[in-house]
Amino acid sequence: VNRGCLWTCILLFLFSSDFQSHLLTLPQNPVIEIGTNFTATCLISNTVEVTADDLYWKLSNVTISRDQYRKVNSTALSVTFIHGISLRTGYRPEKPENLSCISFQKEDKSFSSLQCSWETTRRQTPTVPVQFRLRVMEVLSTITKDHWAEVKLSPYPFHMELEVWVEAVNQLGAAESVHLRKEAQHFVKTNPPEVTVTSEKSFPTSLLLNWTPPVNQVFVKLTYQIRFCSPKSPGWSHVPLPDINDQRNFRLQGLRAYTPYTVQVRCRDMENPHGYWSDWSQNKTTTTPEDKPSSTPDLWRTVVYNGTSERLVQIICKDPEFPNGRITRFEVKVEKQRDRAWNQSEGWKSVLVNRSEAEDAETSITLLEQTSLSNLESVKVSVVAVNSLGRSPEASLILPVKLPDHARVEELKVWPHEGQLVVEWKPLRNKLLSGYVVEWLSEGRLDWRRVSKTSNRTLTGRLDPFVCYNVSVYPVFSRGIGKPVQMSAYVEQGAPLRGPTVKLNGKPGHNEAELVWEEIPLRDRRGFITKYAVFYKLGEEIRGRTSVAVPANSMSLKLESLMGDSQYEAWVQASTAAGSTNGSHHSFITMKYAAGTIEAISLGAGLVILLVFLFGIYKRDLVKHLWPRVPDGRQSSIGTWSPDCSMKAEPPKESCVSGISVLVSMCESQSGFEEDKASLSLRKDKYTSEEHSSGIGGSSCMSSPRQSVSDSDEGADMTDTTASTVQYSSVVASSAYKGQTPGSQPQHSVFSRSESTQPLLDSEETVDTFVQEASGRFERLPPQDITCSEVFGPPDGEQLDCCQEADELQSDGRTAPSSYMPQLGGYKPQ
């Protein structure tokens, strides 16, 4: 049944308190063991008014079905009170196990109590708890609910047998543990002994230990245990127990000279092999005395190339494995081999060692010598280490000029293990082999370790994480050093400290761009680069980025299928076995046009222009009709000449076209206004004001319009005849006034003319035609001097008012200026 359930026997219909004494439930207030059956009985006594049919049972306010009832008899009972019972469940107590007792020594070296502890194998319930009673003999005991207890014993009964056991009791039963029967001293745990350590100069490899026992041997006879260690040892070293026995001093032997050692001692009851050891004593550290070095220096070399074929060899060494003191100097001797004999020695050379006490002598490296092997067959280097008490054995190293190629180790493997590198290789089978040297180099820091020829595996010692080490294995022979085999390794890898810096290789194209990046510096890689990933995205988009995987040995990538005239952002991610790191971002804009597009457009436009130009050359007539020429007055030159002048033909200038005659009017000032009145009246018929155009192409002062007549036939196109230079003229009074009657003073009219390189307009050509018709004829003029009367005859017998021919010189003796400026070239198109 369940624990803590309430069984209730209830009487139907009758609830008067008069029936309380007639209803009884059995058992009364029971404690039930878990896992057993329980039967409850409800009895009606001292009444015949009720029977068993008037009763029913409830379990925790839940009515139990009647098919589970068992009617004992049919006696009617009268019940006036509802009564119930409460059940508490639990386990019987189990036998306590693993009873142990101990008596601790106090600081005043006394013993006053016995502490015991035990274990239970079965769980207990809170409704039926178990109590424990610790008993010592039959007279001492203590009660507790825990799994330990303490009994006071004062004074402590040494050499007296004690019997100790534990009782477990609850309402369901009781159980006892195994009885312990031992003498009282077998229960004690003493304090550690007090220890002193002494070094003696006459014994550099030993230390003398002395200690004081924590308790008088009258009460407890003790045995001792000693352990010691040095700073470089992997753990504690223990002295065998039979070597100590009941002693109070001991000499540690076989130690290393000039080495600090830490010593501890503890004790226990000698007669009880299973007694309690005391705690270890406090650490006592003492350094052994100094002695002369007992091992050779660790001699090695490094090769430095100076850019030529010459090899510079640096001779380096570490302190001997057993220096037995502070090394103050090294003595070095270098011998050169000539004709298979070692000679040409310069004797021993001393190299002082300047090293502070804080520096680790085992890892410190001293540079002894630097020599060249350019012209030598080989070099033999010998070295000894010296301390305050003597010299070490001699170490030597042969440096051949040429290393043998056939002697190399194979199948080199390097992997990390607990902060170190494990180096393993396939051993060589060579009679001249004397051992191996395992070298590791990182960021200029060099170290090495010698391995015997019978071994093919070693540890490098503690190394730094995230640092790349180049590990080399050299075979060492009696005649020299073989060539190494190398491999890089990390003790622990991490994500790179920084990513690659990416940039463009050249300019981006229309839909492609080439990205390049530099290798991450070795100190920032923190591991082997396994791959690169190039990410790029368009503009400021957060999503939609594209990634491309790149092998670790590649430092560039060409992006293709990009959009033209668009901004892209790219970056490179470097990954190791332990993580990834992104590099800096770089933005670029692709070109609007593909390569060659602008050149093709320019070439096409040039070809079109060339074709149009060639078309214009071969189809000049059509071009002239499509684009008529308009004269430009800004390109005219004006000559000033008098209307009373003669016309004189001049030969063509160098810039003029051959076969074209040029008429020049040479005008000269007349003596009076009246003399020019007739000529002015003639011009007045053609002009409407004192200053006006001559009617482009018309004549003035008997000069005809200038027409360039080609050497072609008279039936040539008129367009060719109008493409010559045209003279423009106007009559200007000498006074600066217009539209006024001349005064009494004689005034001279000035006829201004200009030349234009522009062709005539249609209206101007019409005027020329009119003049030609008025003159009555049109002739080709030969290139000779003629007068205006010879060119144009007077119409209908009129007498022309011809200017008088001017003298060659003016009255002041200077040559009269020409009123007609020569034509500087052909016409210019509109």
From TrEMBL:
<keyword id="KW-0732">Signal</keyword>
<feature type="signal peptide">
    <location>
        <begin position="1"/>
        <end position="21"/>
    </location>
</feature>
<comment type="similarity">
    <text>Belongs to the type I cytokine receptor family. Type 2 subfamily.</text>
</comment>
<dbReference type="InterPro" id="IPR003961">
    <property type="entry name" value="FN3_dom"/>
</dbReference>
<keyword id="KW-0472">Membrane</keyword>
<keyword id="KW-0677">Repeat</keyword>
<feature type="transmembrane region" description="Helical">
    <location>
        <begin position="600"/>
        <end position="618"/>
    </location>
</feature>
<protein>
    <submittedName>
        <fullName>Interleukin 6 signal transducer</fullName>
    </submittedName>
</protein>
<feature type="domain" description="Fibronectin type-III">
    <location>
        <begin position="496"/>
        <end position="594"/>
    </location>
</feature>
<dbReference type="Pfam" id="PF06328">
    <property type="entry name" value="Lep_receptor_Ig"/>
</dbReference>
<feature type="region of interest" description="Disordered">
    <location>
        <begin position="808"/>
        <end position="830"/>
    </location>
</feature>
<feature type="region of interest" description="Disordered">
    <location>
        <begin position="684"/>
        <end position="721"/>
    </location>
</feature>
<feature type="region of interest" description="Disordered">
    <location>
        <begin position="737"/>
        <end position="764"/>
    </location>
</feature>
<dbReference type="InterPro" id="IPR052672">
    <property type="entry name" value="Type1_Cytokine_Rcpt_Type2"/>
</dbReference>
<keyword id="KW-1015">Disulfide bond</keyword>
<dbReference type="GO" id="GO:0005886">
    <property type="term" value="C:plasma membrane"/>
</dbReference>
<dbReference type="Pfam" id="PF00041">
    <property type="entry name" value="fn3"/>
</dbReference>
<dbReference type="GO" id="GO:0004896">
    <property type="term" value="F:cytokine receptor activity"/>
</dbReference>
<feature type="domain" description="Fibronectin type-III">
    <location>
        <begin position="403"/>
        <end position="495"/>
    </location>
</feature>
<dbReference type="InterPro" id="IPR010457">
    <property type="entry name" value="IgC2-like_lig-bd"/>
</dbReference>
<dbReference type="InterPro" id="IPR013783">
    <property type="entry name" value="Ig-like_fold"/>
</dbReference>
<dbReference type="InterPro" id="IPR003529">
    <property type="entry name" value="Hematopoietin_rcpt_Gp130_CS"/>
</dbReference>
<keyword id="KW-0325">Glycoprotein</keyword>
<dbReference type="InterPro" id="IPR036116">
    <property type="entry name" value="FN3_sf"/>
</dbReference>
<feature type="compositionally biased region" description="Basic and acidic residues">
    <location>
        <begin position="684"/>
        <end position="693"/>
    </location>
</feature>
<feature type="domain" description="Fibronectin type-III">
    <location>
        <begin position="191"/>
        <end position="291"/>
    </location>
</feature>
<feature type="compositionally biased region" description="Polar residues">
    <location>
        <begin position="812"/>
        <end position="821"/>
    </location>
</feature>
<feature type="compositionally biased region" description="Polar residues">
    <location>
        <begin position="741"/>
        <end position="760"/>
    </location>
</feature>
<keyword id="KW-1133">Transmembrane helix</keyword>
<feature type="compositionally biased region" description="Polar residues">
    <location>
        <begin position="279"/>
        <end position="288"/>
    </location>
</feature>
<keyword id="KW-0675">Receptor</keyword>
<feature type="region of interest" description="Disordered">
    <location>
        <begin position="276"/>
        <end position="296"/>
    </location>
</feature>
<keyword id="KW-0812">Transmembrane</keyword>
